[in-house]
Specification:
It is built from 13 helices and 20 strands. The protein has 477 residues and is of the alpha/beta class. A hairpin with a 4-residue loop joins strand 3 and strand 4.
Amino acid sequence: MSIMTPHIRQMCLCYFAITLTLTEAISLQLNQPKVLLVSFDGFRWDYIHRVPMPRFKYVMENGIHVNRVTNIFITKTYPNHYTLVTGLYAENHGIVANKMYDQDLNKTFSMDGMDIFDPVWWDEAYPLWVTNQIQGHKSGAVMWPGTDVQIHGMYPTHYMIYNISVPFEDRVTQLIDWFRGKEPVNFGLLYWEEPDQTGHEFGTDNPFLDKVIADIDLKLGYLVEQLQKAGLWNTINLIVTSDHGMTLCSRDRIIELDLYIDRDLYTWIDFTPVSAILPKEGKYYEIYHALVNAHPNMTVYKKEDIPDHFRYKHNKRIQPIIAVADEGWTINQNKTTGKFNLGDHGYDNTINSMQPLLIAHGPAFKKNFTKEIMDIVDVYPLICHILGIVPMSNNGTLNNVRELLVDGKMIATESSVVDIVSQGEINTRGSYAWLGILLGSVLVVCFLIVFVQQVTKSQMSGLNIHQGEMSQPLLSR
């Protein structure tokens, strides 16, 4: 019977300790908190009450529901989607409209052109996927505005270039593959174009919109079902929200700029319901005075006089004059030219019809909890807190939404086991998981080599064979 020497026993203990360290590092990486942020474009807060929405209610009953989210001005797609992932108002993140002009760059940004892929428009802020990856994690984005742009020199780890023809189901499949991959993402984003498109075309009172809303409930159900099948439902923190709402317009409520100002005196940068007007040189005061009291349902501001509560004047891309239509009114140059939508958004962000809802489910969130209202800028610090990453400077406040969370703490999960840990612990441990794995692997290999050498030497000593006697036959071959 061989007896383990004290030296070998010490080596075994060291090996055991390092194995535990390596296992913990791997476990931390696998159990990293996960967030999936989903946007149904133009989903107004009260749409869930229009038709039966059993899948939405299932998430709400097993998670949280914020009845209304106060979004930012202007209530358009690109500004609010960038706010969701930066926590900044439009004047701070630089995406001030769906269409804008930068005089310093002499460039125009438009959803209809290729300019949207120029990083110069986006680099005034750091979106969540960039921050997440800078801090050592991986992100996956499906069609979310801005995720197919190289912002601060970085794309999401995985992303799909925007293509409206890709079905919702295919988008979900791709995201789940990224969450379940060999190097899984901890943060995912998913975008769907409806009910915005239908709301624009048919208006908010059309019965066809009810069918689209009901279909979105089915799509949410499909997402939940696929997360359950993939074993992610109890470990992922799902947040479902939108960028804005929608209101009904009418051709009887069109404000015609041609009645008040000559087209040759200005450039019409952004259209309705917030018109961004760039006067030609020397025509600023003429344009302003012609418009300021032109129509009772249109409020006209000099840039410096835009109300502070809009948080919408401290950026070079905001034009010298803006005209804001009242809810349901459209600003066009005349009634026969220019785009008209039967449903529209972009109005004052304090109007209820402009606001979306937010629902969420996951280990970080309470169950069957309702909050009346929150600010959209608070979504960003909330997600950073759940992921355990350090947020960039933002306009949000975590304390405003902390009540949505379980005991106000972070939650890391593993299958049926839930381990509640503090944010500081996640930041300290989770961010260095891969470093721990690498160092642990190196140390284990080194100790194994030394361990084998020590065992071999010990066995040789027991046999009383000298090294020289063993080496001679090998040299003679």
